[in-house]
Amino acid sequence: PIATNTLTEADQDTYEWVWTNTLNYNKSFGDHSINALIGIEALDNHGKGKEISRTDYFFETPDYYLLSNGGGAPNVAYAYDNASSLFSVFGTANYDYDGRYLLTATVRRDESSRFLGDNKSDIFPSFSAGWVVSNEGFWPVDSFISRLKLKGSWGQLGNQTLPVNNPTINISVLSEQYANYVYTGSGGAAQGALLSAAGNPNLRWETSETTNFGVELGFFDNRLNFSAEYFKIKTKDLINQDEQLFSSTAIDAAPPYVNLGSIENTGVDATLSYSDQTDSGFSYGIDVNFSSYKNEVVDLISAFQTGFGGFRTTGTVTRTQEGHPISSFYGRVVEGIFASESEVSSAADQGFTTPAEGVGRFKYADLNNDGVINDDDRTFIGSPHPDFTYGINLRAAYKGFDMSAFFQGSQGNDIFNNDKVYTDFPTFFNANRSVRVLDSWTPDNLDAELPALSQSITNNEGTASSFFVEDGSYMRLKNLQIGYTFNEDVSSYLGMDSVRLYLQGTNLFTITDYDGVDPELQPRYEGGAIDNLTIGVSDNNYPLAAIYSFGVNLKF
Fold it and tell me: What does residue 385 show for φ and ψ, rounded to 5 degrees?
């Protein structure tokens, strides 16, 4: 075919302004001190853009390339004009009595253009208190516990961040392909409009309410420090698109943003650090942080909500339902691989035309015991939420040399490795394959990981199932840096205050049993916002690069 010359022009115009005014008050009288602040802040965002193309240019010269000179009909790929604004009034006050009793109170009122009527604004207060017990007169001066602080807080925080600026109104678009109508009852059809995105005028602020209690401890003149905190975070009126509303109708439009329900996180955070220096000048330290939480969906506006449904062959792989963690994996349970025709015949009907066809294929569990394998046999098959996460920071210095290493890890979380659709099954026949296919089922390899290789015979291997769920636990050396700072004689000779050379490595190694590209998954975004209903799914991920660098720090 002969290619048609095409001119495409696109332009985007965006701007944002922020206007902030604050008034601060500081006053100390005796053992009392007050620090207070009040302020207002206004934010405004505007964006406008379009892309237009036209074909069939008689002359192929730059001077002739104007949209008005094309012979084909102009095609508008997209056009948008949107805006959003936020106006906030806030105030905070801190009270300190003799370094022993600490109080903080904050309140803010936010008004967003993304909501309507009485839902536009909301008020979010917070309070915190602390008691430094070790500053009391009764505390022993020579105690091996050099610092003890008890603290607690309660507060609310609002969220109105959305990938769209007008979620409360219906959006319609002209469509020649799907919206041609005969308006008078006879004659030719004329172009009309159809609904492209449904609005929700009742949408309101998403609110997170946090309660926590903690303790801070210092030992041996604060060389050893420990802190722990229990927290409970309840997010109510969670904002997301209601996929279930439109999946049960024939409406072909983007579903509305709604307040889906509430989720709750309860857990603990803890840190432990130690630092010291020897008489010879060798200094060292270690910092360890630990976090663990339990996530649970408290209530929903529907029986369940599904996540992103466009994964190739697997479709929807996550389900959010009351009593379970948000974005849990949902699918069939693989019990093994059929090894004989008699085994196929005695099992629930898997949809094979003959028993011989089922030999070497996946065997799914008949969870509802109706003798037939279908979508009614799906269940929860994993959770993307870890048992705990941690970080370890090591540092040391001696004379001019210094070293730091940072490890991070996650333990107990599952990953839905959707990349296996492309590498383990004939989704793209004759395309690249994982080495896992070398462990495919054969009569001589009955304990195989994968079913028998076949282009035509399958048993819905691409359907969401426990086969794709893997342990995503890992530990990674995120950063390692070794440096040397020259002494003052050298830096002065060079006319500088200090000279430091360093070598640095990032993402140097990862310890994991995960078979995928990278266990440290990045969030999935939908329209510019994090898709909270599709967490822990690996699909078309890129390998994480190890980075090596050399640097020089100069101070003049």
Answer: -85, 130
Torsion, Cα 365 371 376 381, to 10 degrees, reads -10
- Name residue, tokens 């959006």: 171
User: What is the spatial distance between Cα 435 and Cα 424, in angstroms, rounded to a whole number?
Assistant: 9
The count of other CB atoms within 10 Å of the CB of residue 447 is 9
The identity of residue 129, as a single letter, is: A
Cβ atoms of 500 and 484 closer than 8 Å: yes
Chunked into runs of 10 residues, the chain (556 residues) has average pLDDT values of: 79 95 96 97 94 90 88 86 94 96 97 95 97 93 91 96 89 77 75 85 96 96 95 95 66 84 97 94 96 96 90 91 96 95 95 93 95 95 97 96 97 95 84 88 93 85 93 97 91 85 96 94 80 91 91 89
List residues bridging with 105 in a β-sheet: 93, 127
Closest alpha carbon to 149 in 136, 134, 137, 127: 134
* Phi, psi of 438, deg, nearest 5: -70, -15
Question: Which residues 6+ apart lie within 8 Å of 435 measured at CB?
Answer: none
Strands, E assignment, 278-378: 283-300, 304-306, 318-321, 328-331, 334-337, 362-364
Helix/strand/coil for 343: helix
As given in the structure block, the two tokens for residue 515 are 């078979």
Kindly report the three-state secondary structure assignment for every residue of 127-185: EEEEEEHHHCCCCCCCCCEEEEEEEEEEEEEEECCCCCCCCCCCEEEEEEEEEEECCCC
| Residue 3 and residue 54 in contact, taking contact as beta carbons nearer than 8 Å | no
Chain centre to alpha carbon of residue 53: 35
Distance from C-alpha of 472 to C-alpha of 536, rounded to nearest angstrom: 9
In 3D space, the residue among 340, 343, 334 whose CA is nearest the CA of residue 365 turns out to be 334
Give which of 479, 481, 427, 420 is closest to 454, Cα–Cα.
427
C-alpha of 72 from chain center:
44
Output the six-digit token pair for 69: 């000179």
